[in-house]
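Recall that a protein's primary structure is simply its ordered list of amino acids. Everything else, from secondary elements to tertiary packing, is in principle encoded there. The following example makes that idea concrete.
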Amino acid sequence: SFALELDPDIMTINMACPIPGSAMSEWVTNHARVLIPVADTLDTGSTNSRPFFDTPELPAERLSYWFKKMNRVFYSRPGKLWKMLSSIRSYDECCWYWNNFLLLVRAALK
């Protein structure tokens, strides 16, 4: 609800990434199950919206559910859609919105 109250133009949500050598990486090594090794994503910088790790308290399936739901709720509001569409001022901007829309749909369907 915090993001909805702020109503930014664009919202980006990322999965927590345990960078090697960081305190988070050490915590993940000791307390969580690694799903995607960070080294496997260094060339692309992407996990395709999948979590790097999960814990018994927050399984990957639940984290993915909330990730998709936050994007869906934020971008599917009629006022947000109208604001985004009415702000398009160029063909390039239209293409940018279209490509990002397709990314969101693909992520939501996985």
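The helical segments are 2-6, 23-31, 60-75, 78-86, 91-109. The mean pLDDT is 85.
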